[in-house]
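Researcher: I'm preparing a figure for a lab meeting and need a structural model of a single chain. I don't have an experimental structure, so a prediction will have to do for now. The sequence is pasted below. Please return the structure as tokens so I can convert it later.
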Amino acid sequence: MGGKIPAKELAIREGVPTLPWARVARGEDIKAAASKVGFPLLLKASAGGGGKGMRRVDRVEDLDDAAESASAEAVAAFGDGTLFLERLVDKPRHIEVQVFGDGHGRGVHLHDRECSLQRRHQKVWEEATAPHLPAKTREGLYEAAMKLVRAVRYRSAGTLEFLVDDAGGFYFLEMNTRLQVEHPVTELVTGLDLVWAQLAQAQAPGETILLETPAARGHAIEVRLYAEDPAQGFIPTPGRVEKLRWPTGPGIRVDSGIEEGQMVGTSFDSMVGKLIVFAQSRDHALARMRYALDETVILGLGTNQSYLRALADHPAVKEGRVHTGFLGTEFASFAPVLSSDELALVSAARSAGHGRSVAGLAMGAGASGGAPAIASPWTAFGGSRS
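Model: Understood. Here is the structure written out token by token.
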């Protein structure tokens, strides 16, 4: 299940829906394979994830160059340049089903997650459970996920990923045979500790740790904080963490990868932390996420904090009606805007002698020392805009 091609082949054998697809064997005519799949399509790496080795192709004339580029990227990232083709669905939702198996054909699903808010196929915002998902589709996703868990006698935590179209039809994409970044939202709505469950299952291989699916309660949302500048094409914003304050309070969880005084460079993934909130309703969870983002303070490097804050205010996000292309189309023109009060605070910080170390780097100024492109407005003002 760790390889996308064998996973798709298994899904077909088990009667789980997949999109039209075709493997690309070395030396094979890729155009012939594409004609069977149809355009538009995605070229995808069989190994790895995170959008690496993936290219959209709308015309047959672009296939060869896209395949060469995708394969080279996959080799660099995963050591494997194997590709396959998959039909592209227009504006689908990306829905995941968390599962846990005992290795003997038994297991449970742990409900679902909405992961449609993605930038370049990299998730930015996740929720549990998925809002406005038809009951028939939800039950079909659970049934399909458990078919695959039983078929391979899956052991430990894993995630089955699906695309869902406008009509409620769903298609298996791949399985992540590990614990994913977004597992906290599942933990909050189920009350389970999935890391504990993995360790417990490893220590008792002959037993079934999770016997039944717990009821889902409330709603949870997670956002990923990255050291990057949304106002300048999401370029990395390395620097030293001069000041760090995470939000606290009921229903707020922080999984952090940084601490004060630490240097954040460009040699590793740019995610520096996750903000996760829980509430009894989705509207309350959204309000709590806005509060958590407002109360977060990261000085010394730019982040996507203001981008996430603006996203939390977007009408389509509030309504829970988004798709995998949303950030690249309907939210593509994001530009941070500072109020007159906030601009006055920046000026005051500079006048007090903080210079680039606070009012510049925290706002995402370039190394040239010129006028900063404001990457993270709220971080320079102690978080709250009130």
